[in-house]
Specification:
Elements: H1 7-20, E1 25-29, E2 38-43, E3 48-56, E4 63-72, H2 73-86, E5 91-96
Parallel strand pairs: 2-5
Antiparallel strand pairs: 1-5, 2-3, 3-4
Length: 108
């Protein structure tokens, strides 16, 4: 079992990785630096978006990124606001990419 990286460090590394590929990303809500969960919103620049959260693959036990919600951007924003109301330690990162790149698969 490997130790989890502190949330603030993971977010910094993720933002840097996106920057290297020229993908605009912003911290929309800062969570707990040590143990805050991270939610990633991908705005597709066409009025739609997806929100991803970390979960577990029950078959393998691996941590994976799963779609929390997707659809019109306002609907996704409402879902994110609800999540933040339940978890004030939640980080929210917003990515703007018409090509749908989140690079989450490269951030294990």
């Amino acid at each position: 079992m490997s130790a989890r990286l502190a949330s603030g460090i993971w977010v910094s590394a993720y933002l840097r990785r996106l920057q290297i590929d020229g993908i605009p990303a912003y911290v929309m809500a800062r969570g707990d630096d040590t143990a805050g969960a991270v939610l990633v919103k991908l705005a597709l620049m066409d009025g739609t978006a997806r929100a991803f959260q970390r979960g577990f693959d029950l078959n393998s036990g691996a941590r994976v990124w799963q779609v929390l919600t997707e659809g019109p951007e306002a609907v996704v924003d409402d879902a994110i606001a609800r999540q933040r109301s339940y978890d004030p330690d939640l980080w929210v990162i917003e990515i703007e990419d018409a090509r749908g790149r989140s690079l989450l698969d490269s951030m294990d």
